[in-house]
Amino acid sequence: MSDIKKIKDEILNKLNADLNIESINQIKSELFGKKGKISNSFKNLGSLPTEERKKFASDLNFVKDELQEKINKKIQEIEIKEINSKLQNEKVDVTLPERNIVQGKIHPVSQVIDELSSIFSEIGFSVEEGPDVENEHYNFTALNTPDNHPARDMHDTFYLDDKKELLLRTHTSPVQVRTMLKGKPPFKIIAPGRTYRSDSDQTHAPMFHQVEGLHIDKNVNMGHLKGCLTYFIKSFFEVDKIKMRFRPSHFPFTEPSAEVDIGYELKDGKIVIGEGDRWLEILGCGMVHPNVLKNVKINLDNYQGYAFGIGIDRLAMLKYGINDLRAFFETDYRWLNHFGFDPLDVPSNYRGLSR
Ligand code: PHE
After folding, report:
1. Which residue of 2, 79, 210, 213 has the lowest C-beta tally within 10 Å?
2. pLDDT grade for 2, boundaries at 50, 70 and 90
3. Is the Cβ atom of 211 under 6 angstroms away from ligand 1?
4. Helix, coil or strand: residue 173
C-alpha cells in the first residue's frame, strides 16, 4: 500500500503544476502505459499471498480511478483555458459594417462561346484550341495559301518577326491543320478563340473572335454543311424560322467556298432575326480543299468534309443588340455591368471583388 500511496502523492503533486496537454499525456503514459506504474502494480498482483492480494487490488483500483478522474479534470481545465484564450484573441467585432461585395459579370463574348460550344456539342462536335501566336505555315501555307497569295495581304497580318515566320493568327483555321495532324479521321470539331488583323472601325477590331468548324468523314457534303449551320443559327438565335443565303465566295482552303448571310429586320431600332429583307454576313465556309487534306496526309479517296469560320463578336452584337464592336474590348466596367451576364453557379464561399 505504501507504494501505491507514494505513486498517488507523486502524481497529485505533478498535477498541481501548470501543465499543457503534452505533459498530461506524458503523466498518463507514466501511469497507464505498457510499463506504467499502475500497469506494473497490476502485473505484480499475482505474486502476492491471497489475503494481501484482495486488499491490494482494491486499493490499487481505487487509486487508479482517483488518478484517472483527476487527470480527466485537468485535461478539461486546460481545454477550457485554451478556448478562452482563443476567444480573447480572435474576437470578432460584429459592429463592423459589411464589406462592399461586387459580383463580377460574364463578358458577352465568353457567354456566346459557352452557348455555341454547348449547341455544337449536342450534335457531336468537340472543342479544340490552338495558340494565338501561330507560325506562317499553319496560318497560311498548309491552308493552301502560298507565299504570294493576295489573301496574305488581305488579312493585314500582324507579323512578329522580320522573316515573317511568326504571326498573330489571322483566323482560327490553323486549328484545322493542327487537329488533322494530331489525329486520324473522322474529325468533328469546333475551335473558338481570339484572332487578329490590322483593322479598326465600328465593326472591326484588331483583335476579334472566331469559331472554326471542321467535319471530315467518309461522305460529308455541302448538304451536311447547310444542315449543320441551319441548326446552329436557329438554336443560337432561339427562332424556328431563319432566312439564310449562301453566296459563292473564295477562300484558298475551301472549294467550293461560300459566305453565309442571315436575313433580319429592324423593328423599332431592334434587330429581329429571321424576318425582313436585310442581310448580314456572319460566316465563311466551304468544302475543305483537296490540297489542305493532302498537306495533312489524309487519303482523298476515303475522306472529305466541310469547314466554316463564324465571327463570334458579330453573333454577340446581333443577339444582344450591341452596336459598337470596339466597346467589347474597352474594359469599361459600366458597359460590362449593362451587357454582361450573371454567372449561373456562384460557389457559396465566393466573396466577389470588393471595391
Ligand atoms: N478563315 C476564314 C476567314 O477568316 C473563314 C473560313 C473558315 C472560310 C473555314 C472557310 C472555311 O475569313
Report:
1. 2
2. low
3. no
4. coil
